[in-house]
Amino acid sequence: MLLSVRNVYAGYDESMILKGVSIDVPEKKAVALLGRNGVGKTTLLNTILGLVGTNSGTIEFAGDSIERMPSDRRARMGIGYVPQGRDIFPGLTVWENLNVSLRVAGAKGAEAESRLQSVYELFPVLKDMLKRKGGVLSGGQQQQLAIGRALLLKPKILILDEPTEGIQPSIIDQIEDAIYAIRKKGEMSVILVEQYIDFARNACDSFYILERGSVVQKGDISLLDDDMVAKYLTV
Ligand SMILES: Nc1ncnc2c1ncn2[C@@H]1O[C@H](COP(=O)(O)OP(=O)(O)OP(=O)(O)O)[C@@H](O)[C@H]1O
């Protein structure tokens, strides 16, 4: 396993949100994290990222226990994150946004060029808009830029929190294709938090459903049936 969350309890001050959550993310596989609003999906991501502390339980990543590590160290170990909402610098151009990641990664010359080319292959629109300010892009283009920036860091795992939220269908297809391509290339694992079930079905290998801070269903993505969707996911 690349990432193993074991029996984690975590939350905020008074309220325990995660109550004994365990999930496994295999190398180079994409895992969907599903559940209605407020069940604890973002809290689980934040626990993996180190933005929320654990009360008990363990988190192993690439063979190391990380549950006590600061979040910047987890990021350097290869945990990449695209938060909900588009995390880009609106006042910088597309190129400058991408270049920030290249600098953080310390990627130069041919290495930088090859990382950029793989991002342009996934999201050709970014190459056409290098001189535009991030803030003037459409929501979908900003989401592509945010994912592109995370990919330039070459994480071992890419964590995406609701990438389709508020994005038009044609761009959703492009983002779905991109996750599919990332998976096919076999360069990294993915955790995808998603409300849009068809997207998760197409993009992921396996799934976990959370309810009130606990995993209530899990399995191969082919096992995610309409009864489960009705019981745990439709509003
Ligand atoms: N910073 C915080 N302080 C206190 N409580 C919080 C905080 N963030 C989230 N919560 C609470 O934790 C619970 C789980 O929220 P969380 O955001 O993890 O759920 P979610 O499944 O990601 O839902 P959504 O899809 O709405 O983001 C909610 O009851 C929420 O109110």
Describe the structure.
Belongs to the ABC transporter superfamily. Residues 3-235 form the ABC transporter domain. It comes from Pelagicoccus mobilis. One of its GO terms (molecular function) is ATP binding. Keywords: Amino-acid transport, ATP-binding, Nucleotide-binding, Transport. The protein has 235 residues and is an alpha/beta fold. It folds into 2 domains: 1-78 and 155-172 and 187-235, P-loop containing nucleotide triphosphate hydrolases (Rossmann fold); 87-154, no CATH class. Helices cover 40% and strands 27% of the residues. The protein contains 9 helices and 10 strands. The strands form 2 sheets. A 6-stranded mixed beta sheet has the order 6-7-8-3-9-10, sandwiched between helices. A 4-stranded antiparallel beta sheet has the order 2-1-4-5, covered by helices on one side. A hairpin with a 2-residue loop joins strand 9 (206-211) and strand 10 (214-220). Helix 3 packs parallel to helix 6 (139-152), helix 4 (109-122) runs antiparallel to helix 6 and helix 7 (169-185) packs parallel to helix 8 (197-203). The longest helix has 17 residues, at 169-185. The chain is globular, with a radius of gyration of 17 Å. The mean pLDDT is 94. The chain binds adenosine-5'-triphosphate. Residues 12, 15, 17, 35, 37-43 line the site of adenosine-5'-triphosphate (ATP).
